Amino acid sequence: MSINATLLIQIIAFLMLVWLVNKVLWGPISKLMEDRQKRISDGLSAAEKGKHELELAEQKAKEVLKEAKSQAQLILGQAEKRGSEIVEDAKVKATEEADRIKLSAQAELEQEVSRAKEDLRQEVSALVVIGAEKILNKEVDAAVHDEMLQTLVKSI
Amino acid sequence: MGTVEYIQHHLANNTVGEGFWTFNMDTIVISALLGALIVFVSARLGRQLTTGTPRGFQNFVESILDFVSTNVRDAFPGHNPLIAPLALTIFVWVWLMNAMDLIPVDLLPYLYQVITGDSHAHLKVVPTTDLNTPLAMALAVFALILSFNIKHKGIWGYTKMFLFHPFGKFFIPFNIVMTFIEEVSKPLSLGLRLFGNMFAGELVFLLIALIGGTLAVGAAALFWAPLQAVLDLGWLIFHLLVITLQAFIFMVLTIVYLGMASESDH
């Protein structure tokens, strides 16, 4: 168990083994582990990015929803206004129509009344003439007394 | 065979050559085979890697790599592409070599003796109980420490560390001695710690193996054999911690020493 030339052989063997281990074991596997680490960190950052994008999308969706709501509110308000306008308009028109109908009915009524009065007047004058004829027992000449009769009719 | 011979036999290497130019063939072959096992297994794994969810063996290997690179990040300032594979190699290789200790002490030597037909053939199965292996790694690390020091501090900066560290400019000779001891003790303690722990562990396994073997004769074996089994299991479980801890310590100290070497100034 003394030191001898085995020492030299073992030094060479050790150095060769270090070289070989670096070549076949450390090199490939540490590269592989680095690759995997990179893949994992890539995946993590992608997930982070995805999460961030999701957040952005959610925020955007919220904004869009809010805008839609306010727009809907606006449209609803406009519609209500428009509706009440239409109703108001219809009311005004209906009132006008009613007034118009009322006026024309009144005019017709007055016309009718005056026509009836006229007719009545005519009839009364005829009755007066007939009555006068009977009182006087004498035919009144309509032509002669026309002027008088007309005055009479007018005074009725 | 007596107790002393048994232990000596087990602690002797299978050698080729004489004097300094002796080669401990068992140490060289077994550690090379374990190294080849690492390369073979990782090359096979390399063909079926997936970036998706790792499963089974890949998951296991990845957790070892994670463990090693966490240690490197904690103990080594800055970045150097050499450190992590170096630490990984030390951890896995040392652990595997230490784990040879967990194989029953007589199994591989016995098989070897049967195969070679020589009943006295030596085979020492744990490469880290041969001082050459831990020391070889420690010296390689030491060479790296020197080159890192020179690279990051410059030759003048490194010399300055010897001159003015730790007691300032009025103790220059003393400083040189202190820093020299500090630097040299790094590879020595690194190698000897591993060697000592594994050697002692192996020795305890051998002693436990003696309980049911040489000590027990005839009917006494009925008592000693179960005791040996219980003790062996206990030491095995404890030793499982020891081999992992020693591999871990060797790795961490390597990282720390290189980290200290690559700090640009004190």
Instruction: Compute the number of structural domains of chain A.
Output: 1
Distance between the termini of chain B: 58 Å
Distance, first to last CA of chain A? 172 Å
Shape of chain B: globular
Broad structural category of chain A: mainly alpha
Percent range of helical residues of chain A? over 70%
The helicity of chain B comes to: over 70%
Give your account of this protein's structure.
The complex is a heterodimer of chains A (156) and B (266). Chain A has one domain. Chain A is built from 2 helices and no strands. Chain A has helices spanning 6-136, 146-155. The N and C termini of chain A lie far apart (172 Å). Chain B has 266 residues and is an all-alpha fold. Chain B has one domain. Chain B has 8 helices and 2 strands. Chain B has a two-stranded antiparallel ribbon. The longest helix of chain B is centred in the last third of the chain and has 41 residues, at 172-212. The termini of chain B are far apart. Chain A binds chain B through residues 1-11, 13-18, 20-22, 24-30, 32-33, 35-36, 39, and chain B through 11-13, 17, 19-24, 27-28, 31-32, 35, 38-39, 42-43, 45-46, 49, 51, 61-62, 65-66, 69, 82, 84-86, 88-89, 92-93, 127, 130-133, 135-137, 139-140.
What does the secondary structure layout of this molecule look like, with pairings?
The complex is a heterodimer of chains A (156) and B (266).
Chain A: H1 6-136, H2 146-155
Chain B: H1 3-11, E1 15-16, E2 23-24, H2 25-46, H3 56-75, H4 83-99, H5 107-116, H6 132-164, H7 172-212, H8 221-261
Antiparallel strand pairs in B: 1-2
Helix pairs in contact in B: 2-4, 3-4, 4-8, 6-7, 6-8, 7-8
